């Protein structure tokens, strides 16, 4: 059965079910087919769904008629009985799979025939309902199935456009390092393994977590619940994660479920896990080990079946060495680790993602603007400290400010505009001077910029700066001296 759908929290607290983010398909393409041999049931389904969801619903009395209708026009969702004359529900699903018809199927079944419904789900049905269904549950489930369909249709369109190899669910990339990550996700998707995703801000950690959730046939039936640990004050964290009983502390006016409970049967995404305070780390460790916990103020153990994905833009290994993160929790989270490369190390992704974001943000009804060669060169030469999120924001702005359907360099944000002053090499090819000379200038300017940025991140610590840059400490020190960079300026005051 559908799990957790009825237990949504306000969006600012819990982002349940990634498919909820997907924009609905155009009304014209949202159509439901009800396949049912009992006329009264058929009609009550039709009336209820049309009235409650405002969507056109067609009806078929058996599998054979349904197949004819599915061949004639697209349907987003099909609700089918299993036991019917002529072609029964199971054979209908088999045919749909064989013909690769893009419809999301919900099966209905009488009490006592749950095994058949489970069998239908193994064959590709999305979910099942026991008859007679609770009207509210039916509508919630159909809405979820419609969102699932929209997501699948969008992904199919995207894949057709950019080629299957360059997309894993919602994660686009042309970078070989990312292909290895796609393969790894493929291996772990069907397990309940805990995953740790490390990567700079905006590299797509949440996007990858959602892809893992979607790629798992088991977990995607449950919700995806994201917890942004850095945004939660320490005093609230325990009750947010584990819930509380009524009266357990001042202000606990009613019992409340925590995020672990809300994510049951799905995925819990712990974003910025490096910000979890020490006091909470020990409690989290216990839950990960025992897969059970008590609500704050409660004494009843609640068992959960959840995949935990943790993400951080900090280096947890270093935090462990510095005594800021528990080693046992680190190893518990780090069963499978995904290191997301920053955008500057995957330049092949810049044109792919830029084009994708331009299409996403193009004003509706207009053709997406064209990215000029000069603007593309500017994108390729930028270091993208904010990674994919920064590129997305830049493309959103460019779509708004583009004139005559063309994005030119001046439509890009100020960060990407050339800055006046010495030391900034221009990327404009000057044919009056030798190439080697200009390349040397560009390299010097880029090294300086890179080192300054890395020192800022490393808070003036040369060793950490060396680690970030992948260079030895000695070469970093030599370059710092050569470029006369004052490391003290980057140390916290
Ligand atoms: N490979 C990708 N393909 C398409 N869109 C992507 C990809 N990676 C990231 N995005 C988009 O970029 C934006 C930032 O991604 P996301 O929020 O997943 O990054 P993050 O690493 O979790 O960021 P933070 O460290 O700030 O939490 C999102 O809008 C996401 O949809």
Count all strands and give the number: 18
Hetero groups: adenosine-5'-triphosphate
Helix content: 40-55%
Largest sheet: 5 strands, parallel
User: What is the CATH homologous superfamily assignment of the largest domain?
Assistant: P-loop containing nucleotide triphosphate hydrolases
**How many structural domains can be distinguished in the coordinates?**
4
Ends apart, CA distance between termini: 56 Å
Low-confidence stretches: 1-28
CATH architecture annotation of the largest domain: 3-Layer(aba) Sandwich
The structural class is alpha/beta
Our count of helices gives 18
Shape designation: globular
Query: What is the CATH topology assignment of the largest domain?
Result: Rossmann fold
Order of strands, widest sheet: 2-1-3-4-5
Arithmetic mean pLDDT: 84
Report the β-strand fraction as a percent range. Answer: 5-15%
The CATH C-level name of the largest domain is Alpha Beta
What Rg is obtained from the alpha carbons, in whole angstroms? 27 Å
Structure description:
- The protein is α/β, with parallel strands linked by helices and 493 residues long.
- It has 4 domains: 23-158, Rossmann fold; 163-247 and 254-341, Rossmann fold (3-Layer(aba) Sandwich), CATH 3.40.50.300; 346-416, Orthogonal Bundle (Helicase, Ruva Protein, domain 3); 435-490.
- Helices cover 43% and strands 13% of the residues.
- The protein has 18 helices and 18 strands.
- The strands form 6 sheets. A 5-stranded parallel β-sheet has the order 2-1-3-4-5, with helices on both faces.
- It is globular and about 85 Å long.
- The model is unreliable at 1-28 (pLDDT under 50).
- The structure holds adenosine-5'-triphosphate.
- The site of adenosine-5'-triphosphate has 17 residues, from strand 7, helix 7 and helix 15.
- Keywords: ATP-binding, Nucleotide-binding, Phosphoprotein, Plasmid, Transcription, Transcription regulation.
- Residues 171-400 form the Sigma-54 factor interaction domain.
């Amino acid at each position: 059965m559908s799990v957790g759908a009825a237990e949504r929290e306000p969006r600012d607290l819990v982002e349940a079910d990634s498919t909820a983010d997907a924009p609905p398909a155009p009304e014209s393409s949202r159509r439901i087919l009800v396949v049912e041999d009992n006329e009264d049931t058929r009609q009550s389904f039709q009336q209820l769904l049309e009235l409650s969801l405002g969507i056109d619903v067609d009806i078929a009395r058996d599998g054979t008629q349904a197949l004819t209708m599915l061949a004639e026009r697209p349907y987003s969702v099909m609700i089918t009985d299993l036991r019917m004359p002529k072609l029964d529900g199971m054979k209908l699903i088999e045919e749909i799979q064989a013909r690769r018809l893009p419809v999301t199927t919900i099966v209905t079944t009488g009490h006592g025939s749950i095994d058949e419904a489970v069998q239908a789900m193994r064959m590709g049905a999305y979910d099942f309902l026991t008859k007679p269904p609770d009207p509210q549950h039916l509508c919630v489930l159909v809405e979820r199935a419609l969102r699932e369909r929209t997501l699948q249709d969008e992904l199919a369109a995207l894949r057709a456009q950019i080629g299957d190899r360059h997309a894993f669910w919602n994660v686009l990339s042309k970078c070989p390092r990312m292909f290895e990550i796609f393969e790894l996700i493929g291996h772990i998707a069907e397990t309940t393994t805990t995953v740790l995703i490390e990567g700079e801000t905006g590299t797509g950690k949440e996007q990858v977590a959602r892809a893992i959730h979607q790629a798992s046939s088991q977990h995607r039936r449950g919700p995806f619940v994201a917890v942004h640990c850095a945004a939660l004050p320490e005093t609230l964290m325990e009750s947010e994660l584990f819930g509380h009983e009524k009266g357990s502390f001042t202000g606990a006016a009613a019992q409340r479920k925590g995020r672990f409970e809300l994510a049951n049967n799905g995925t819990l995404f712990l974003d910025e896990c490096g910000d979890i305070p020490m006091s909470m780390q020990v409690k989290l460790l216990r839950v990960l080990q025992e897969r059970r916990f008590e609500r704050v103020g409660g004494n009843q153990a609640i068992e959960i079946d959840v995949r935990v994905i943790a993400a951080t833009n900090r280096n947890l290994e270093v935090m462990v060495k510095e005594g800021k993160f528990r080693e046992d929790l680190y190893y518990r989270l780090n069963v499978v680790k995904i290191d997301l490369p920053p955008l500057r190390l995957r330049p092949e992704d810049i044109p792919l993602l830029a084009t994708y974001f331009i299409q996403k943000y193009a004003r509706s009804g207009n053709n997406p603007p064209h990215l000029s060669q000069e603007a593309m060169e500017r994108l390729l030469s930028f270091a993208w400290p904010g990674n994919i999120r920064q590129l997305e924001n830049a493309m959103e702005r460019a779509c708004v400010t583009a004139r005559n359907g063309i994005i030119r360099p001046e439509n890009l944000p100020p960060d990407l505009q050339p800055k006046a002053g010495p030391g900034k090499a221009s990327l404009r090819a000057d044919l009056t001077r030798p190439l080697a000379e200009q390349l040397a200038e560009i390299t010097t300017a880029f090294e300086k910029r890179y080192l300054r940025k890395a020192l800022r991140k490393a808070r003036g610590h040369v060793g950490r700066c060396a680690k970030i840059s992948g260079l030895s400490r000695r070469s970093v020190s030599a370059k710092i001296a050569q470029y006369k960079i004052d490391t003290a300026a980057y140390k916290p005051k």
